[in-house]
Amino acid sequence: ASTHSQRQNLYWGQLVLRKDEAGLEYLEWKSDLGAGETTGESTPYLFARPDNPDNCPVQVYKKYAEKRPGDMLHDYDPLYLSPKRMYSMWDQVWYSRKSLTRNKIEQMLKVI
């Protein structure tokens, strides 16, 4: 059972910030952290939207990285972290070092 749950985990290193030849930033999804560079056609990408920064996945990623604990930015750290119980928008860190559980994510998705 633990092997099955490990496959369900999403890791910080699976979402990689890159730039194309023109300098446009994008996020690349790596399904396998153990694999080297991914160049396959099936690799999902999310490109920056410089004309719409409020709805830009790259800007959201950067803000999330900025508000995570500094020691939780390693490849095998959990992608989804639990928010701190008490924080303000001026705090340096908004998230705890605890991963967000699947049940909590499902609860949040029901509300969205």
TrEMBL record:
<keyword id="KW-0597">Phosphoprotein</keyword>
<keyword id="KW-0832">Ubl conjugation</keyword>
<protein>
    <submittedName>
        <fullName>ZMYM2 protein</fullName>
    </submittedName>
</protein>
<keyword id="KW-1017">Isopeptide bond</keyword>
<feature type="domain" description="ZMYM2-like/QRICH1 C-terminal">
    <location>
        <begin position="46"/>
        <end position="111"/>
    </location>
</feature>
<dbReference type="InterPro" id="IPR042838">
    <property type="entry name" value="KIAA1958"/>
</dbReference>
<dbReference type="InterPro" id="IPR021893">
    <property type="entry name" value="ZMYM2-like_C"/>
</dbReference>
<dbReference type="Pfam" id="PF12012">
    <property type="entry name" value="DUF3504"/>
</dbReference>
